[in-house]
Specification:
With 186 residues, the chain is α/β, with parallel strands linked by helices. The protein has a single domain (6-185), classed as archaeoglobus fulgidus dsm 4304 superfamily (archaeoglobus fulgidus dsm 4304 fold), CATH 3.30.2170. It is built from 7 helices and 8 strands; from the N terminus they run βββαβαβαβααββαα. It has helices spanning 47-58, 73-76, 81-88, 104-110, 113-124, 148-157, 166-185; strands spanning 6-14, 18-27, 32-41, 63-69, 77-78, 92-96, 130-134, 137-144. Strands 3-2-1-4-6-8-7 form a 7-stranded mixed sheet, sandwiched between helices. The longest helix has 20 residues, at 166-185. It starts with 5 loop residues before the first strand and ends with a helix.
């Protein structure tokens, strides 16, 4: 992959009712050249809209891929990867870092009625996770708007070491710092 290809990484940090989302634009050469923040509701259903707003705020037409750290942000605020890819007109790649049996049982334990149905419908529309060996670790990838082999290549290209793509690694650090600052201001 050419060194100038850019990806937006989105990660979150939360402690109370609002989650801080950080978006970081990173080149395949590992140079970071853009930051934006947004918030979403912990336990809500607004994460997809918040990520779309974050992307829009950046105004970066040069971003080729959007990486999201997970699919259920901010205590089961499920991201609709398909809708996000359509709205942004970019491939969206969700990367998770732990093996799990899926979210269905966890959702059923935490929600009921309309709250459960809404999350389950979003989750059921998403592509399955694929296991990916990445350096000396294993990650799990879902991709929309790009074929699975290109998604795997993109994740590898943006991961110089370890198991966390650089846009997501930096976004996670930025989200934690932003969340800390936001809490100090409250």
């Amino acid at each position: 992959m050419k060194s100038g290809v850019r990806a937006l990484g989105v990660a979150e940090s939360y402690r109370e009712r609002r989650s801080t989302l950080a978006g970081v634009v990173t080149r395949a050469s590992r140079v970071t050249d853009g930051f934006a923040y947004e918030t979403c509701t912990v336990g809500g259903l607004d994460a997809t809209d918040a990520i779309a707003d974050l992307f829009s705020r950046l105004g970066r037409e040069d971003v080729r891929y959007v990486f999201v750290a997970g699919i259920a942000l901010a205590w089961y605020n499920v991201v609709d990867l398909r809708r996000l890819a359509d709205e942004l007109d970019r491939p969206v790649i969700s990367v998770t870092f732990e093996e799990s049996p899926g979210l269905t049982e966890a959702l059923e334990a935490e929600f009921e009625g309309e709250e459960l149905r809404a999350r389950t419908e979003i989750l059921d529309r998403q592509p399955p996770r694929e296991r990916l060996a990445l350096n000396d670790q294993t990650v799990f990838v879902r991709s929309v708007g790009v074929d699975p082999s290109e998604a795997r290549d993109a994740v590898r290209a943006f991961t110089p070491e370890g198991g966390r793509p650089e846009p997501l690694r930096v976004a996670r650090l930025a989200a934690r710092a932003g969340d800390e600052l936001r809490r100090e201001g409250d």
